[in-house]
From TrEMBL, chain A:
Leader sequence segment: none
Protein name: NADH dehydrogenase subunit C
PANTHER family in the cross-refs: NADH DEHYDROGENASE [UBIQUINONE] IRON-SULFUR PROTEIN 3, MITOCHONDRIAL (PTHR10884:SF14), NADH DEHYDROGENASE UBIQUINONE IRON-SULFUR PROTEIN 3 (PTHR10884)
SUPFAM superfamilies in the cross-refs: Nqo5-like
Family membership noted in the UniProt record: Belongs to the complex I 30 kDa subunit family.
InterPro entries with a match to the protein in the record: NADH_quin_OxRdtase_su_C/D-like, NADH_UbQ_OxRdtase_30kDa_su
Entry GO MF terms: NADH dehydrogenase (ubiquinone) activity
Pfam families for this protein: Complex1_30kDa
NADH:ubiquinone oxidoreductase 30kDa subunit domain mapped to chain residues: 32-153
Gene3D superfamilies, alphabetized: NADH:ubiquinone oxidoreductase, 30kDa subunit
TrEMBL record, chain B:
InterPro entries in alphabetical order: NADH_UbQ_OxRdtase-like_20kDa, NADH_UQ_OxRdtase_20Kd_su
Enzyme category, top tier: translocase
Function: NDH-1 shuttles electrons from NADH, via FMN and iron-sulfur (Fe-S) centers, to quinones in the respiratory chain. The immediate electron acceptor for the enzyme in this species is believed to be a menaquinone. Couples the redox reaction to proton translocation (for every two electrons transferred, four hydrogen ions are translocated across the cytoplasmic membrane), and thus conserves the redox energy in a proton gradient.
Organism phylogeny: Bacteria, Pseudomonadati, Bacteroidota, Cytophagia, Cytophagales
Organism whose genome encodes this protein: Pseudarcicella hirudinis
E.C. number(s) listed in UniProt: 7.1.1.-
Compartments where found: Cell membrane
Chain's gene name: nuoB
GO molecular function, one term: NADH dehydrogenase (ubiquinone) activity
Record-listed [4Fe-4S] cluster binding positions: 46-47, 112, 141
Major site of localization recorded for this protein: membrane
Reaction(s) this enzyme catalyzes, per UniProt: a quinone + NADH + 5 H(+)(in) = a quinol + NAD(+) + 4 H(+)(out)
Residue stretches making up the NADH:ubiquinone oxidoreductase-like 20kDa subunit domain: 46-154
Protein name: NADH-quinone oxidoreductase subunit B
Swiss-Prot/TrEMBL cofactor(s): [4Fe-4S] cluster
TrEMBL record, chain C:
Chain's gene name: nuoD
Similarity comment: family membership: Belongs to the complex I 49 kDa subunit family.
Function: NDH-1 shuttles electrons from NADH, via FMN and iron-sulfur (Fe-S) centers, to quinones in the respiratory chain. The immediate electron acceptor for the enzyme in this species is believed to be a menaquinone. Couples the redox reaction to proton translocation (for every two electrons transferred, four hydrogen ions are translocated across the cytoplasmic membrane), and thus conserves the redox energy in a proton gradient. NDH-1 shuttles electrons from NADH, via FMN and iron-sulfur (Fe-S) centers, to quinones in the respiratory chain. The immediate electron acceptor for the enzyme in this species is believed to be ubiquinone. Couples the redox reaction to proton translocation (for every two electrons transferred, four hydrogen ions are translocated across the cytoplasmic membrane), and thus conserves the redox energy in a proton gradient.
Protein name: NADH-quinone oxidoreductase subunit D
GO annotations of cellular component type: plasma membrane
Native source species: Pseudarcicella hirudinis
Length: 166, 182, 412
């Protein structure tokens, strides 16, 4: 089974409106989909008799401040252990309504991964059983991995701007 | 005693004569304290792994009278903070410090505990001396076990020369008050 | 488009043991285990609801050493990120370093010479041994056997000496460069590796003799903290913990990197996925690692120990002083002036705890646009409540110990 076969199968199953942005990055197939399709798509891949993408390797957020209406993204890494083929599924959501359906109904491991993406980017996973911050302190009022927030600790006084080229 | 070479600690300065030895209580107490410091290993990350090496057979911190690691804060003398302290962890460090009985010393092992190290980020406390007073800093990322031992011996020196009343002095109370500790 | 029926996945959600439905005998107590408990090996908080000695429910809090690696990585040139990877799983830093180097090499299209690949394999397997030594001996300590720990720890010390010979550091190694190693294996390093190959098996046998068939140890670990293969997969387990459950997934075998396809080794698997199986799998992996190191050292190819990639590989110090071009490259690399090509790349290596992945999105700047670490610990630690509910507190401690959860990797 090749990347082309997977792409063809997904296109014939879901159509071009739902599956787009098909590229191959260093031998790894990337497809982009929409928030409505993500859950049926992953369920379809899970129970596909040949592909058997039944292992969620990773899930993470990403932020593109310049892409209007598609600022936030979620990247799913799937792995078919039987065929030893990997697949990346992406989707994009606007920053003012970052609602993505949860995957916790299919993968137990999605629980903490989605909490992490929520913690870092504020992506709201609808239907998640316990969507609270995981790594940062609970009273934090922003999403630190978004591009506009600074990295440095704001309480440092010994770092003079001139010395750090700012 | 056999001919095995056992190194004893030196006696403090004092008057010695036939059948007696006189010295000040301070130095006697200091001697006893310095050679039986019970460390509380507060290991969070990489430096904790180096502490494991310090504690194990090769470097053997037991040679300095601290084979008894006190995991209970109540019975510990030295708080060894090893590793990054995130802001989420800061209240825990402070609580552990408050649970320790006087006299207590604090050893900040490694760059992260001393100053935040390479992690100048929103989530990391920039040095534990922002929340509790520190006696000795050990540089390194992570420090080698020899360095940790050296830092530990510096604490021993402090314990040896400390007056028994230091913890009652107004200066010390003021220091604690500056950290918000009563 | 035809409608997709959603899978009713039985493996999702916490499986409570059957008898937990019975009425509790005692009043329930809440026990706060962590974040600084000495038996948790790292800082995690577990709030346990206990019925006498039995754990009824568990809630975890993590993030106590969250250092914002992924945010830092977005501000640093590629080569400075190696220092961050050191501090992820600090028990086996070289694997992290080289995993990251290979990711960047994939992006840049650098072909690494065979010799460098073999040296990497040697270093990665040494790191795996060092990591498994810690995990297994600490597991023995947690069941009450301190002696074995002191036996094998001296060999971890020896491995650190080899690291020092190869890169100068003990723990946070920052080993290698993009394109290969920073220096060749010295005679002393080869001698020390040979000493390890000759002498360590004796110590390991002694350690196994003390622990492996020890009645107390077996009683404490057999059937403790078991997880089935289906659930382990659903929880995203990888590495020794997944193999203990009976799934032979090993990145080294399935997606060979750095010439792993040249070596003969076996992937040990367990049957029950309990603490004892995890112990055995890690023990056997140490033997396999020794085997791989022996093969790599015996067949060490001649040639250069680094790729010819002047834009990314730091020139020799000698050349920097005498050669204009080398000085320019040196300056550009150190100042992080070299832009990476645009691209997205995922690379994974078999870390000591499982599949350690790097997902690097580059927009053509000097720093990654986004770098996501797939940390095995973070992913499998969430199964911990399920593995301990219904067992006693002392079982929970050995379960956590055998899972080898490293706080630095979990929280990044």
């Amino acid at each position: 089974m090749t990347n082309e076969q997977i792409a063809q199968d997904l296109l014939s199953q879901f159509g071009e409106e739902k599956i787009f942005g098909i590229v191959e990055n260093y031998g790894l197939l990337n497809v982009t989909t929409t928030t409505e399709t993500i859950v049926p798509l992953l369920h379809y891949l899970y129970q596909h008799p040949v592909f058997k993408f039944q292992f969620l390797t990773d899930l993470g957020g990403i932020h593109f401040p310049d892409a209007k209406g598609q600022e936030l993204g979620v990247i799913y890494h799937l792995h078919s252990l039987e065929n030893n083929v990997r697949l990346i599924v992406k989707l994009h959501v606007p920053i003012d309504a970052p609602d993505v359906p949860t995957l916790t109904g299919l993968y137990a491991t999605a629980n903490w991964m989605e909490r992490e993406a929520f913690d870092f980017y504020g992506i709201n996973f609808v239907g998640h059983p316990n969507l609270i911050r995981i790594l940062n302190v609970e009273d934090m009022d922003y999403f630190p991995m978004r591009k506009e927030y600074p990295l440095e600790d704001a309480t440092r006084e010994d770092k003079i701007d001139a010395l750090f080229g700012r | 005693m056999s001919d095995r070479k056992i190194q004893m600690v030196d006696a403090p300065a004092g008057l010695e004569g036939q059948g007696f030895f006189a010295t000040s209580l301070d130095s006697l107490v200091g001697l006893a304290r310095a050679n039986s410091l019970w460390p509380l290993p507060f290991a969070t990350s990489c430096c904790g792994i180096e502490f494991m090496a310090t504690m194990a057979a090769h470097y053997d911190i037991a040679r300095f009278g601290s084979e008894r690691l006190s995991f209970s804060a109540r019975q510990a003398d030295v708080l060894m903070v090893m590793g990054t302290i995130a802001k989420k962890m800061a209240p825990v460090v402070k609580q552990v410090y408050l649970q320790m009985a006087e006299p207590r010393w604090v050893l900040a092992v490694g760059a992260c505990a001393s100053s935040g190290g390479i992690f100048d980020t929103y989530s990391v406390l920039q040095g534990i001396d922002r929340i509790i007073p520190v006696d000795v800093y050990v540089p390194g990322c992570p420090p080698r076990p020899e360095q940790i031992l050296d830092g530990f011996m510096q604490i021993q020196e402090l314990a040896k020369s400390e007056s028994t009343r230091r913890r009652q002095t107004p200066e010390y109370k003021e220091l604690l008050a500056s950290y918000g500790i009563e | 488009m035809s409608e997709v029926a959603l899978v009713a996945n039985p493996n999702v959600g916490i499986a409570k043991p059957q008898e937990s439905n019975k009425k509790y005998v005692n009043e329930l107590t809440t026990l706060n285990l962590g974040p600084t408990h000495p038996a948790t090996h790292g800082i995690f908080q577990n709030i346990l609801t206990m019925d006498g000695e039995t754990i009824v429910d568990s809630e975890q809090t993590v993030g106590y050493i969250h250092r914002a690696f992924e945010k830092i990585a977005e501000r640093r040139p590629l080569y400075q990120i190696t220092t961050l990877t050191d501090r992820m799983n600090y028990c086996s830093s070289p694997i992290n370093n080289m995993g990251w180097h290979m990711t960047v090499e994939k992006l840049l299209g650098i072909e690494v010479p065979k010799r460098a690949q073999y040296i990497r394999v040697i270093m990665m397997e040494l790191a795996r041994i060092a990591d498994h030594i810690v995990c297994n001996s600490i597991l023995a300590v947690d069941t009450g056997a301190l002696t074995g720990f002191l036996y094998v720890m001296q060999w971890r010390e020896h491995i650190y000496e080899i690291y020092e010979e190869v890169c100068g550091a003990r723990l946070t190694t920052n080993m290698g460069r993009f394109g290969g190693m920073e220096r060749d294996l010295s005679k002393e390093a080869i001698r020390k590796i040979n000493v390890l190959l000759d002498e360590f098996p004796k110590s390991l046998l002694e350690f196994e003799g003390l622990v492996k068939r020890n009645r107390i140890f077996m009683d404490r670990t057999t059937d403790v903290g078991a997880i089935s293969a289906e659930r382990a997969l659903n929880y995203g387990f990888t590495g020794p913990n997944l193999r203990a459950a009976g799934v032979d997934y090993d990145v080294r075998a399935m997606n060979p990197y750095s010439s792993y396809e040249d070596f003969e080794f076996e992937v040990p698997v367990g049957t029950k996925g309990d603490t004892y199986d995890r112990f055995l799998v890690r023990g056997e992996e140490m033997w396999q690692s020794l085997n791989i190191i022996r093969q790599a050292l015996n067949n060490l190819p001649e040639g250069s120990y680094h790729a010819d990639a002047p834009h990314y590989y730091l020139p020799k110090k000698q050349d920097v002083y005498h050669n204009m071009e080398a000085l320019i490259y040196h300056f550009k690399i150190v100042m992080g002036e070299i832009d990476a090509p645009v691209g997205e790349v995922y690379h994974s290596v078999e870390g000591a705890n499982g599949e350690l992945g790097f997902y690097l999105v580059s927009d053509g700047g000097r720093a990654p646009y986004r770098l996501k670490f797939r940390r095995p610990c973070f992913i499998y630690y969430q199964a911990f409540p399920e593995m301990i509910v219904g067992s006693t507190l002392s079982d929970a401690i050995v379960t956590m110990s055998s899972m080898n959860v490293i706080a630095g990797e979990l929280d990044v």
